[in-house]
Amino acid sequence: MLADRKFKAIKIGLMRSKQFGLLRGVAMHGNTYLTTDVPTAATNGRDCWFNPDFLFNTVKNEGDKGAAFIMVHEWLHKAGMHMVTYRRLAEQHAMRTNMATDYWINDRIIVADPEHALTEMPVDGTGKAIGLYDPKYHEWTVKRIFRDLEQEQEEGGGGEGDDGDAGFDNHDWESAKDMGTEEKEKLAEDIKQAIRQGLHADAKAGQDSLQDALGLGELVTPKVSWRALLRMFMNSTCRKKEQSTWRRPSRRFLHQDIVMPTLQGNSINEVVIARDTSGSMFFADRLRDVTSEIIGIAKAVSIDKIHFIDWDGQVESHEVYSSDSLNNAPAMKTATGGGGTDPTCVSDYLKEKGIKPDCVIMLTDGEVYNWGNWTVPILWAITNDTKITAPVGKTIQID
User: What 8-state DSSP symbol labels residue 221?
Assistant: First the structure.
């Protein structure tokens, strides 16, 4: 009972605080259990479990600041929708995903409470930190941290840690996996609504300077799908006119009191999709990412003729497909290249071969020095943890 009262007092103090009050709705969402069924603390993205013996005996910070840190930590797992958003990443490597999300969270807690007024990184009886923190990961995305840890391991620099160095809580990926689509969507909307309520209450209280100390605003900012942006680009540049429709009369003849139909199109005539296969694309799954996006492009829109090009410092291969045949194309499985990165080779190649597409889609990590010379509409679809914008054409970020 003493542990229960102490836990509730800390929770109320955090929810009333300027540093963490924005999380009050998230903290109240789902169920909270004080139980020894978990060794430390855990969440499934909706409910939280805390071991009181761990919080108040193993953790030795003064004033229960370590316990408060752990409570906020679990709330931020929920706020970030980590169990759902990064479940597929966890299927690749659960421990590394656990570590990446913990680094992301702990940085935000420390930034929100730099003077340790309410929270402090948990320590054990020897003063050793229980948890993960590295200032170099400040403002990094979870996926970027994951890739950095992966690179460290591949280069023999560690990065994986043992069980004692992999954070202080458990992440219930299996429960997230068992959630149905509707359940996931409802959970996401409930969490976003809880965050919005916190932001709204904070603004009304005149605490605007503190409302995004945890970076919660970005978690509820609507994000436009890259495929939606792709459709907009293609509709505005190269939609083929095929069928007449009376829904929207042609404006060209209205001034003559003549009503004529307009033409609308459901497919695109000719497109170049050029995949960057330079050396840097073989790092951190970038090549796999853009390859899956190529298939997504073919499914998103109907294209009669697709020039599929692999390029690095030069054009390595050139095949021609349609939207229907691209999905099972052998070129999807075998990438040719691995050299330098020069998009100019693609623009020069198209000119040399007399290829005049409606548009060009360049899939790349954006780590280039020369962006090429283009005479047709060009869209850069960039996969990179660092935001890169091409100086020519339009750019979308592949997330």
Answer: S
